[in-house]
Design goal:
With 486 residues, the chain is an all-alpha fold. The chain is built from 19 helices and no strands.
Protein backbone atom coordinates (compact mmCIF):
# COMPACT_ATOMS: atom_id res chain seq x y z
CA UNK A 1 0.00 0.00 0.00
CA UNK A 2 2.83 2.42 0.70
CA UNK A 3 4.22 2.46 -2.83
CA UNK A 4 0.73 3.06 -4.16
CA UNK A 5 0.24 5.92 -1.75
CA UNK A 6 3.52 7.41 -2.85
CA UNK A 7 2.49 7.26 -6.49
CA UNK A 8 -0.70 9.11 -5.64
CA UNK A 9 1.13 11.81 -3.77
CA UNK A 10 3.66 12.53 -6.52
CA UNK A 11 1.17 13.74 -9.11
CA UNK A 12 -0.45 15.96 -6.49
CA UNK A 13 2.89 17.54 -5.63
CA UNK A 14 3.75 17.96 -9.28
CA UNK A 15 0.37 19.62 -9.87
CA UNK A 16 0.99 22.05 -7.03
CA UNK A 17 4.45 22.82 -8.42
CA UNK A 18 2.94 23.44 -11.85
CA UNK A 19 0.37 25.84 -10.38
CA UNK A 20 3.11 27.77 -8.56
CA UNK A 21 5.20 27.95 -11.75
CA UNK A 22 2.20 29.19 -13.72
CA UNK A 23 1.58 31.93 -11.17
CA UNK A 24 5.19 33.12 -11.31
CA UNK A 25 5.14 33.04 -15.11
CA UNK A 26 1.93 35.07 -15.16
CA UNK A 27 3.46 37.49 -12.65
CA UNK A 28 6.41 38.07 -15.01
CA UNK A 29 4.01 38.80 -17.88
CA UNK A 30 2.01 41.17 -15.68
CA UNK A 31 5.16 43.05 -14.59
CA UNK A 32 6.23 43.39 -18.23
CA UNK A 33 2.86 44.94 -19.07
CA UNK A 34 3.10 47.25 -16.06
CA UNK A 35 6.57 48.48 -17.02
CA UNK A 36 5.60 49.17 -20.64
CA UNK A 37 2.54 51.26 -19.68
CA UNK A 38 4.39 52.95 -16.80
CA UNK A 39 7.16 53.96 -19.21
CA UNK A 40 4.60 55.66 -21.45
CA UNK A 41 2.91 57.75 -18.75
CA UNK A 42 5.73 58.53 -16.31
CA UNK A 43 7.57 60.81 -18.74
CA UNK A 44 4.62 63.15 -19.29
CA UNK A 45 4.97 64.76 -15.88
CA UNK A 46 8.67 65.44 -16.53
CA UNK A 47 8.16 67.54 -19.67
CA UNK A 48 8.18 70.98 -17.94
CA UNK A 49 11.33 70.06 -16.00
CA UNK A 50 13.02 68.72 -19.13
CA UNK A 51 12.20 71.93 -20.99
CA UNK A 52 14.05 73.90 -18.29
CA UNK A 53 16.93 71.43 -17.95
CA UNK A 54 17.71 71.40 -21.67
CA UNK A 55 16.53 74.95 -22.43
CA UNK A 56 14.09 73.54 -25.00
CA UNK A 57 10.61 74.41 -26.25
CA UNK A 58 7.50 72.34 -25.66
CA UNK A 59 7.53 71.27 -29.33
CA UNK A 60 10.99 69.79 -28.74
CA UNK A 61 10.45 68.08 -25.39
CA UNK A 62 7.15 66.50 -26.49
CA UNK A 63 9.29 64.16 -28.61
CA UNK A 64 10.36 62.50 -25.37
CA UNK A 65 6.83 61.10 -25.22
CA UNK A 66 6.19 60.92 -28.96
CA UNK A 67 9.37 58.93 -29.75
CA UNK A 68 8.31 56.23 -27.29
CA UNK A 69 4.76 55.99 -28.67
CA UNK A 70 5.92 56.06 -32.30
CA UNK A 71 8.40 53.24 -31.71
CA UNK A 72 5.67 51.11 -30.18
CA UNK A 73 3.12 51.89 -32.88
CA UNK A 74 5.40 51.38 -35.86
CA UNK A 75 7.12 48.18 -34.68
CA UNK A 76 4.57 46.34 -32.56
CA UNK A 77 3.26 44.07 -35.34
CA UNK A 78 6.76 43.33 -36.64
CA UNK A 79 7.94 42.35 -33.16
CA UNK A 80 4.96 40.04 -32.77
CA UNK A 81 5.81 38.32 -36.06
CA UNK A 82 9.49 38.09 -35.09
CA UNK A 83 8.46 36.42 -31.85
CA UNK A 84 6.47 33.84 -33.81
CA UNK A 85 9.59 33.06 -35.87
CA UNK A 86 12.45 33.08 -33.36
CA UNK A 87 10.59 32.08 -30.19
CA UNK A 88 8.42 34.32 -28.01
CA UNK A 89 10.18 33.60 -24.72
CA UNK A 90 13.60 34.42 -26.20
CA UNK A 91 12.43 37.65 -27.79
CA UNK A 92 10.56 38.76 -24.66
CA UNK A 93 13.71 38.33 -22.57
CA UNK A 94 15.60 40.41 -25.15
CA UNK A 95 12.85 43.04 -25.07
CA UNK A 96 12.94 43.34 -21.28
CA UNK A 97 16.73 43.62 -21.35
CA UNK A 98 16.56 46.28 -24.08
CA UNK A 99 13.92 48.24 -22.15
CA UNK A 100 16.08 48.13 -19.00
CA UNK A 101 19.25 49.20 -20.83
CA UNK A 102 17.42 52.01 -22.63
CA UNK A 103 15.98 53.22 -19.31
CA UNK A 104 19.52 53.58 -17.96
CA UNK A 105 20.57 55.45 -21.12
CA UNK A 106 17.58 57.80 -20.70
CA UNK A 107 18.52 58.60 -17.12
CA UNK A 108 22.15 59.28 -18.08
CA UNK A 109 21.44 61.20 -21.32
CA UNK A 110 23.57 64.40 -21.52
CA UNK A 111 21.40 66.08 -24.17
CA UNK A 112 17.76 66.22 -25.19
CA UNK A 113 18.31 64.50 -28.54
CA UNK A 114 20.21 61.63 -26.92
CA UNK A 115 17.34 61.31 -24.47
CA UNK A 116 14.87 61.17 -27.37
CA UNK A 117 16.97 58.51 -29.13
CA UNK A 118 17.12 56.45 -25.93
CA UNK A 119 13.35 56.80 -25.53
CA UNK A 120 12.85 55.41 -29.05
CA UNK A 121 15.04 52.44 -28.06
CA UNK A 122 13.00 52.07 -24.87
CA UNK A 123 9.84 52.11 -26.99
CA UNK A 124 11.19 49.24 -29.08
CA UNK A 125 11.65 47.20 -25.92
CA UNK A 126 8.15 48.16 -24.78
CA UNK A 127 6.70 47.09 -28.16
CA UNK A 128 8.18 43.62 -27.67
CA UNK A 129 6.90 43.45 -24.09
CA UNK A 130 3.38 44.63 -24.87
CA UNK A 131 2.97 42.23 -27.79
CA UNK A 132 4.52 39.06 -26.45
CA UNK A 133 3.00 39.16 -22.98
CA UNK A 134 -0.46 38.73 -24.51
CA UNK A 135 0.79 36.10 -26.97
CA UNK A 136 2.48 34.09 -24.19
CA UNK A 137 -0.74 33.79 -22.18
CA UNK A 138 -1.74 30.87 -24.42
CA UNK A 139 1.47 29.02 -23.49
CA UNK A 140 1.27 29.85 -19.79
CA UNK A 141 -2.35 29.62 -18.65
CA UNK A 142 -4.93 26.87 -19.15
CA UNK A 143 -7.69 27.73 -21.60
CA UNK A 144 -10.43 27.92 -18.97
CA UNK A 145 -8.61 30.77 -17.21
CA UNK A 146 -7.60 32.82 -20.24
CA UNK A 147 -10.08 35.56 -19.37
CA UNK A 148 -8.66 36.02 -15.88
CA UNK A 149 -5.13 36.23 -17.30
CA UNK A 150 -6.17 38.81 -19.89
CA UNK A 151 -7.97 40.74 -17.16
CA UNK A 152 -4.82 40.76 -15.05
CA UNK A 153 -2.78 42.16 -17.93
CA UNK A 154 -5.42 44.85 -18.52
CA UNK A 155 -5.37 45.67 -14.79
CA UNK A 156 -1.59 46.06 -14.68
CA UNK A 157 -1.66 48.18 -17.85
CA UNK A 158 -4.17 50.53 -16.19
CA UNK A 159 -2.16 50.56 -12.95
CA UNK A 160 1.00 51.50 -14.85
CA UNK A 161 -0.79 54.32 -16.65
CA UNK A 162 -2.32 55.62 -13.42
CA UNK A 163 0.88 55.39 -11.37
CA UNK A 164 3.08 57.12 -13.94
CA UNK A 165 2.23 60.79 -13.28
CA UNK A 166 1.98 60.48 -9.48
CA UNK A 167 5.13 58.39 -8.99
CA UNK A 168 6.96 60.52 -11.54
CA UNK A 169 6.06 63.69 -9.66
CA UNK A 170 7.42 62.24 -6.39
CA UNK A 171 10.64 61.09 -8.06
CA UNK A 172 11.24 64.48 -9.69
CA UNK A 173 10.63 66.30 -6.39
CA UNK A 174 13.03 64.05 -4.50
CA UNK A 175 15.74 63.10 -6.99
CA UNK A 176 15.34 65.08 -10.23
CA UNK A 177 14.18 64.10 -13.69
CA UNK A 178 16.84 61.38 -14.07
CA UNK A 179 15.02 59.22 -11.51
CA UNK A 180 11.91 59.08 -13.70
CA UNK A 181 13.82 56.82 -16.09
CA UNK A 182 16.31 55.16 -13.73
CA UNK A 183 13.51 53.72 -11.59
CA UNK A 184 12.86 51.29 -14.45
CA UNK A 185 16.34 49.74 -14.17
CA UNK A 186 15.86 47.71 -10.94
CA UNK A 187 12.25 46.95 -11.90
CA UNK A 188 13.39 45.77 -15.33
CA UNK A 189 16.11 43.55 -13.86
CA UNK A 190 13.59 41.99 -11.48
CA UNK A 191 11.17 41.34 -14.34
CA UNK A 192 13.94 39.87 -16.49
CA UNK A 193 15.01 37.48 -13.74
CA UNK A 194 11.45 36.41 -13.03
CA UNK A 195 10.67 35.83 -16.72
CA UNK A 196 13.91 33.90 -17.28
CA UNK A 197 13.20 31.62 -14.31
CA UNK A 198 9.49 31.00 -14.85
CA UNK A 199 8.40 31.30 -18.50
CA UNK A 200 8.00 28.01 -20.41
CA UNK A 201 10.20 27.33 -23.41
CA UNK A 202 7.12 27.10 -25.67
CA UNK A 203 7.08 26.03 -29.28
CA UNK A 204 10.21 25.56 -31.35
CA UNK A 205 11.25 28.66 -33.25
CA UNK A 206 10.79 28.62 -37.00
CA UNK A 207 13.20 31.37 -38.00
CA UNK A 208 15.46 28.87 -39.73
CA UNK A 209 12.67 27.78 -42.09
CA UNK A 210 10.84 31.08 -42.65
CA UNK A 211 12.48 34.39 -43.51
CA UNK A 212 11.58 37.56 -41.68
CA UNK A 213 9.93 40.15 -43.94
CA UNK A 214 12.35 43.08 -43.69
CA UNK A 215 10.89 45.09 -46.57
CA UNK A 216 7.36 44.64 -45.24
CA UNK A 217 8.53 45.75 -41.80
CA UNK A 218 10.05 48.93 -43.26
CA UNK A 219 6.94 49.76 -45.32
CA UNK A 220 4.57 49.08 -42.42
CA UNK A 221 6.67 51.17 -40.05
CA UNK A 222 6.66 54.02 -42.59
CA UNK A 223 2.89 53.74 -43.02
CA UNK A 224 2.12 53.70 -39.31
CA UNK A 225 4.67 56.38 -38.45
CA UNK A 226 3.32 58.75 -41.11
CA UNK A 227 -0.27 58.13 -39.98
CA UNK A 228 0.55 58.62 -36.29
CA UNK A 229 2.37 61.89 -37.02
CA UNK A 230 -0.47 63.09 -39.26
CA UNK A 231 -2.89 62.51 -36.40
CA UNK A 232 -0.78 64.14 -33.65
CA UNK A 233 1.15 67.07 -35.14
CA UNK A 234 -0.53 70.45 -35.30
CA UNK A 235 -2.28 70.41 -31.89
CA UNK A 236 -5.78 69.93 -33.23
CA UNK A 237 -5.37 71.70 -36.60
CA UNK A 238 -5.01 69.78 -39.84
CA UNK A 239 -2.74 71.63 -42.23
CA UNK A 240 -0.61 70.90 -45.28
CA UNK A 241 1.95 68.93 -43.26
CA UNK A 242 -0.74 66.67 -41.85
CA UNK A 243 -2.25 66.14 -45.29
CA UNK A 244 1.17 65.30 -46.74
CA UNK A 245 1.88 62.79 -43.99
CA UNK A 246 -1.54 61.19 -44.48
CA UNK A 247 -0.91 60.91 -48.22
CA UNK A 248 2.48 59.33 -47.51
CA UNK A 249 0.77 56.83 -45.20
CA UNK A 250 -1.74 55.89 -47.90
CA UNK A 251 0.95 55.43 -50.57
CA UNK A 252 3.23 53.46 -48.27
CA UNK A 253 0.29 51.34 -47.15
CA UNK A 254 -0.55 50.53 -50.76
CA UNK A 255 3.04 49.43 -51.40
CA UNK A 256 2.94 47.32 -48.23
CA UNK A 257 -0.16 45.45 -49.40
CA UNK A 258 1.39 44.89 -52.83
CA UNK A 259 4.58 43.48 -51.32
CA UNK A 260 2.68 41.23 -48.91
CA UNK A 261 0.74 39.63 -51.77
CA UNK A 262 3.96 38.59 -53.51
CA UNK A 263 5.79 37.04 -50.55
CA UNK A 264 5.67 33.42 -49.48
CA UNK A 265 6.26 34.44 -45.84
CA UNK A 266 4.68 37.88 -45.45
CA UNK A 267 4.79 39.96 -42.29
CA UNK A 268 0.96 39.91 -42.14
CA UNK A 269 -0.70 37.09 -44.10
CA UNK A 270 -3.41 39.03 -45.94
CA UNK A 271 -5.69 35.98 -45.85
CA UNK A 272 -5.85 36.55 -42.10
CA UNK A 273 -7.59 39.88 -42.72
CA UNK A 274 -10.31 37.98 -44.60
CA UNK A 275 -11.40 36.53 -41.26
CA UNK A 276 -14.41 38.69 -40.39
CA UNK A 277 -14.23 37.69 -36.73
CA UNK A 278 -10.66 38.95 -36.40
CA UNK A 279 -11.44 42.14 -38.31
CA UNK A 280 -14.48 42.67 -36.07
CA UNK A 281 -12.31 42.43 -32.96
CA UNK A 282 -9.71 44.82 -34.36
CA UNK A 283 -12.30 47.35 -35.60
CA UNK A 284 -14.21 47.48 -32.31
CA UNK A 285 -10.92 47.73 -30.41
CA UNK A 286 -9.93 50.79 -32.46
CA UNK A 287 -13.35 52.43 -32.09
CA UNK A 288 -13.37 51.96 -28.32
CA UNK A 289 -9.83 53.35 -27.97
CA UNK A 290 -10.87 56.39 -30.03
CA UNK A 291 -13.72 57.04 -27.60
CA UNK A 292 -11.56 56.59 -24.50
CA UNK A 293 -9.10 59.19 -25.77
CA UNK A 294 -11.94 61.73 -25.63
CA UNK A 295 -12.14 61.34 -21.84
CA UNK A 296 -8.46 62.32 -21.57
CA UNK A 297 -8.83 65.24 -23.97
CA UNK A 298 -12.05 66.91 -22.84
CA UNK A 299 -12.22 65.94 -19.17
CA UNK A 300 -9.51 68.30 -17.84
CA UNK A 301 -11.06 71.34 -19.58
CA UNK A 302 -14.56 70.52 -18.35
CA UNK A 303 -13.39 70.04 -14.77
CA UNK A 304 -11.19 73.13 -14.64
CA UNK A 305 -13.27 75.63 -16.68
CA UNK A 306 -16.89 74.50 -16.40
CA UNK A 307 -16.73 73.18 -12.82
CA UNK A 308 -13.95 75.56 -11.72
CA UNK A 309 -11.85 72.93 -9.92
CA UNK A 310 -8.22 73.63 -8.90
CA UNK A 311 -5.47 71.66 -10.64
CA UNK A 312 -4.87 69.29 -7.71
CA UNK A 313 -8.53 68.30 -7.58
CA UNK A 314 -8.68 67.93 -11.37
CA UNK A 315 -5.86 65.39 -11.19
CA UNK A 316 -7.62 63.51 -8.42
CA UNK A 317 -10.90 63.32 -10.35
CA UNK A 318 -9.12 62.21 -13.52
CA UNK A 319 -7.60 59.29 -11.58
CA UNK A 320 -11.10 57.81 -11.16
CA UNK A 321 -11.07 56.28 -14.65
CA UNK A 322 -7.72 54.42 -14.39
CA UNK A 323 -8.65 53.25 -10.88
CA UNK A 324 -11.90 51.72 -12.15
CA UNK A 325 -10.04 50.03 -15.01
CA UNK A 326 -7.47 48.64 -12.58
CA UNK A 327 -10.06 47.29 -10.16
CA UNK A 328 -12.36 45.76 -12.77
CA UNK A 329 -9.85 43.99 -15.03
CA UNK A 330 -9.62 40.66 -13.20
CA UNK A 331 -13.36 40.48 -12.30
CA UNK A 332 -14.15 41.18 -15.97
CA UNK A 333 -11.87 38.29 -16.92
CA UNK A 334 -13.65 35.94 -14.51
CA UNK A 335 -16.99 36.95 -16.01
CA UNK A 336 -15.65 36.29 -19.51
CA UNK A 337 -14.48 32.82 -18.45
CA UNK A 338 -17.82 32.05 -16.82
CA UNK A 339 -20.37 33.52 -19.24
CA UNK A 340 -18.35 33.59 -22.45
CA UNK A 341 -16.38 36.25 -24.31
CA UNK A 342 -19.12 37.27 -26.76
CA UNK A 343 -21.79 38.16 -24.16
CA UNK A 344 -19.21 40.12 -22.17
CA UNK A 345 -18.05 41.99 -25.28
CA UNK A 346 -21.62 43.06 -25.96
CA UNK A 347 -22.25 43.88 -22.29
CA UNK A 348 -19.10 46.00 -22.13
CA UNK A 349 -19.99 47.92 -25.28
CA UNK A 350 -23.58 48.40 -24.08
CA UNK A 351 -22.22 49.82 -20.81
CA UNK A 352 -20.01 52.19 -22.79
CA UNK A 353 -23.04 53.28 -24.83
CA UNK A 354 -24.76 54.16 -21.55
CA UNK A 355 -21.68 55.99 -20.24
CA UNK A 356 -21.14 58.08 -23.37
CA UNK A 357 -24.87 58.89 -23.39
CA UNK A 358 -24.57 60.23 -19.85
CA UNK A 359 -21.54 62.33 -20.83
CA UNK A 360 -23.28 63.72 -23.91
CA UNK A 361 -26.18 64.90 -21.73
CA UNK A 362 -24.22 65.81 -18.58
CA UNK A 363 -25.43 68.90 -16.77
CA UNK A 364 -22.87 71.07 -14.92
CA UNK A 365 -25.44 71.30 -12.11
CA UNK A 366 -24.58 67.69 -11.20
CA UNK A 367 -21.05 68.80 -10.33
CA UNK A 368 -18.15 66.41 -9.70
CA UNK A 369 -20.46 63.53 -8.75
CA UNK A 370 -22.25 63.57 -12.09
CA UNK A 371 -19.02 63.61 -14.07
CA UNK A 372 -17.39 60.84 -12.00
CA UNK A 373 -20.49 58.66 -12.26
CA UNK A 374 -20.53 58.95 -16.06
CA UNK A 375 -16.78 58.28 -16.31
CA UNK A 376 -17.05 55.26 -14.00
CA UNK A 377 -19.78 53.73 -16.17
CA UNK A 378 -17.80 54.40 -19.36
CA UNK A 379 -14.52 53.03 -17.99
CA UNK A 380 -16.22 49.97 -16.49
CA UNK A 381 -17.66 49.17 -19.91
CA UNK A 382 -14.21 49.66 -21.47
CA UNK A 383 -12.60 47.24 -19.01
CA UNK A 384 -15.29 44.63 -19.62
CA UNK A 385 -14.99 44.96 -23.39
CA UNK A 386 -11.20 44.99 -23.62
CA UNK A 387 -10.72 41.87 -21.51
CA UNK A 388 -13.44 39.91 -23.33
CA UNK A 389 -12.31 41.12 -26.76
CA UNK A 390 -8.67 40.18 -26.18
CA UNK A 391 -9.76 36.78 -24.92
CA UNK A 392 -12.07 36.17 -27.88
CA UNK A 393 -9.61 37.32 -30.55
CA UNK A 394 -6.61 35.41 -29.21
CA UNK A 395 -8.43 32.13 -28.45
CA UNK A 396 -8.81 30.72 -32.00
CA UNK A 397 -5.35 31.81 -33.21
CA UNK A 398 -2.94 29.03 -34.17
CA UNK A 399 0.34 28.98 -32.27
CA UNK A 400 2.61 30.30 -35.02
CA UNK A 401 0.47 33.43 -35.46
CA UNK A 402 -0.15 34.44 -31.83
CA UNK A 403 2.54 37.10 -31.89
CA UNK A 404 1.34 38.87 -35.03
CA UNK A 405 -2.32 38.80 -33.92
CA UNK A 406 -1.36 40.15 -30.49
CA UNK A 407 0.58 42.88 -32.28
CA UNK A 408 -2.45 43.72 -34.42
CA UNK A 409 -4.63 44.01 -31.31
CA UNK A 410 -2.19 46.40 -29.65
CA UNK A 411 -1.78 48.30 -32.91
CA UNK A 412 -5.53 48.78 -33.37
CA UNK A 413 -5.74 50.24 -29.86
CA UNK A 414 -2.82 52.61 -30.45
CA UNK A 415 -4.20 53.77 -33.78
CA UNK A 416 -7.52 54.40 -32.04
CA UNK A 417 -5.76 56.58 -29.47
CA UNK A 418 -3.98 58.58 -32.19
CA UNK A 419 -7.19 58.94 -34.19
CA UNK A 420 -9.17 60.00 -31.13
CA UNK A 421 -6.56 62.63 -30.28
CA UNK A 422 -6.88 64.12 -33.75
CA UNK A 423 -10.52 63.62 -34.78
CA UNK A 424 -12.32 64.05 -31.46
CA UNK A 425 -9.85 66.75 -30.49
CA UNK A 426 -10.82 68.60 -33.66
CA UNK A 427 -14.53 68.08 -32.89
CA UNK A 428 -14.06 69.61 -29.45
CA UNK A 429 -12.00 72.51 -30.82
CA UNK A 430 -14.63 73.25 -33.48
CA UNK A 431 -17.27 73.90 -30.80
CA UNK A 432 -15.16 76.54 -29.03
CA UNK A 433 -14.87 80.26 -29.87
CA UNK A 434 -12.58 81.16 -32.75
CA UNK A 435 -10.00 82.55 -30.28
CA UNK A 436 -9.58 79.09 -28.76
CA UNK A 437 -9.84 77.61 -25.28
CA UNK A 438 -8.36 80.70 -23.60
CA UNK A 439 -11.56 82.69 -24.24
CA UNK A 440 -14.04 79.82 -23.80
CA UNK A 441 -16.74 80.23 -21.19
CA UNK A 442 -17.95 77.42 -18.89
CA UNK A 443 -21.01 77.01 -21.12
CA UNK A 444 -18.82 76.78 -24.23
CA UNK A 445 -16.78 73.95 -22.74
CA UNK A 446 -19.91 72.15 -21.51
CA UNK A 447 -21.35 72.35 -25.01
CA UNK A 448 -18.06 71.03 -26.41
CA UNK A 449 -18.29 68.08 -24.01
CA UNK A 450 -21.83 67.31 -25.18
CA UNK A 451 -20.96 67.46 -28.88
CA UNK A 452 -17.74 65.46 -28.54
CA UNK A 453 -19.40 62.67 -26.60
CA UNK A 454 -22.34 62.75 -28.96
CA UNK A 455 -19.85 61.71 -31.66
CA UNK A 456 -18.30 59.23 -29.21
CA UNK A 457 -21.76 57.76 -28.59
CA UNK A 458 -22.21 57.19 -32.34
CA UNK A 459 -18.81 55.44 -32.54
CA UNK A 460 -19.59 53.24 -29.53
CA UNK A 461 -22.97 52.28 -30.96
CA UNK A 462 -21.26 51.37 -34.24
CA UNK A 463 -18.84 49.18 -32.32
CA UNK A 464 -21.74 47.39 -30.59
CA UNK A 465 -23.44 46.74 -33.93
CA UNK A 466 -20.22 45.30 -35.40
CA UNK A 467 -19.74 43.03 -32.39
CA UNK A 468 -23.39 41.93 -32.46
CA UNK A 469 -23.28 41.06 -36.15
CA UNK A 470 -20.13 38.94 -36.07
CA UNK A 471 -20.19 36.06 -33.62
CA UNK A 472 -16.84 35.39 -31.95
CA UNK A 473 -16.13 31.77 -30.89
CA UNK A 474 -15.68 31.15 -27.20
CA UNK A 475 -12.20 30.05 -26.07
CA UNK A 476 -13.37 26.47 -25.46
CA UNK A 477 -14.86 26.24 -28.97
CA UNK A 478 -11.76 27.68 -30.58
CA UNK A 479 -9.56 25.27 -28.65
CA UNK A 480 -11.62 22.31 -29.78
CA UNK A 481 -11.49 23.46 -33.41
CA UNK A 482 -7.70 23.95 -33.36
CA UNK A 483 -7.25 20.59 -31.63
CA UNK A 484 -9.36 18.95 -34.32
CA UNK A 485 -7.23 20.49 -37.06
CA UNK A 486 -4.08 19.18 -35.45
Amino acid sequence: MKPADTEQRLPSGAFRHERVSTRWALASLALSTLLASFGASVATVALPVLAQAFDASFAQVQWVVLAYLLAITTLIVSMGRLGDLMGRRTLLLMGIALFTLASALCGLAPSLWMLIAARALQGLGAAIMMTLTMALVGETVEKAKTGVAMGLLATLSAVGTALGPSVGGLLISGFGWHAVFLINVPLGLLTLLLAWRSLPAGATATAGRVRFDGLGTLLLATTLGAYALAMTLGRGSFGALNAGLLLAAILSGGLFVRVQRRLASPLIPLAMLGDRLLVSGLATNALVATVMMATLLVGPFYLSITLGLPSALVGLVLAAGPCVAALSGVPAGRLADRFGARPMRLAGLATMVLGTSLLSLLSPALGIGGYVAAIVVTTLGYAMFQTANNTAVMAPVVDNQRGVVSGLLNLSRNLGFFTGASVLGAVFAATLPTNGISTASPDDVANGLHVTFGVALALTTLGWLIAFKHRVPEPSEAYQESAGER
